[in-house]
């Protein structure tokens, strides 16, 4: 990640770098070598998009709560809901309604959700 970040910024200064990462940390560090909280701490990412693909509001909310702590306000956090991800078929009211993440995200300052 460090090499990619440096090279991209050298080619295009001011470029915003993000990553769509596995949401469950630290499991993803070991399973797919994504240590995205460390990438954030090192300044390699300007925002992060965890793939929090679940149709269960409670599970989604737990992931987001954990990610908010991991990011610690260093960069914007944009959780992905994966409405049609493999094995997930969310109903419209789950996607657009009062899912469990919205109040959590708003309290944390993630107003774009």
Structural notes for this entry:
Strands 1-2 form a two-stranded parallel sheet. The chain has a domain at 62-80 and 88-108. It is built from 6 helices and 2 strands, in the order H-E-H-H-E-H-H-H. By secondary structure, it is mostly helical. 43% of the residues lie in helices and 9% in strands.
Quick one: overall form? elongated
Q: How much helix, percentage-wise, in residues?
A: 40-55%
Give the overall average pLDDT.
Answer: 83
Order of strands across the main sheet: 1-2
Q: Work out the number of β strands.
A: 2
Determine the structural class based on helices, strands and strand pairing.
Answer: mainly alpha
Low-confidence stretches: none
Q: Specify the biggest β-sheet.
A: 2 strands, parallel
Counting DSSP H or I runs of 4 or more residues, the number of helices is: 6
Radius of gyration: 15 Å
* Beta-strand fraction estimate: 5-15%
Distance between termini? 27 Å
Helix-strand topology string: HEHHEHHH
């Amino acid at each position: 990640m460090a090499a990619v970040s440096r090279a991209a910024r050298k080619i295009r200064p001011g470029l915003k770098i993000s990553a769509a990462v596995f949401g469950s940390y630290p499991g993803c560090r070991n399973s797919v070598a994504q240590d995205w909280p460390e990438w954030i701490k090192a300044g390699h990412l300007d925002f992060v998009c965890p793939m929090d693909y679940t149709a269960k509001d409670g599970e989604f909310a737990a992931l987001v709560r954990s990610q908010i702590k991991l990011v610690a306000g260093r960069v914007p956090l944009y959780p992905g809901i994966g409405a049609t991800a493999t094995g997930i078929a969310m109903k419209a009211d789950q996607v657009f309604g009062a899912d469990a993440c919205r109040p959590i995200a708003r309290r944390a300052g993630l107003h774009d959700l």
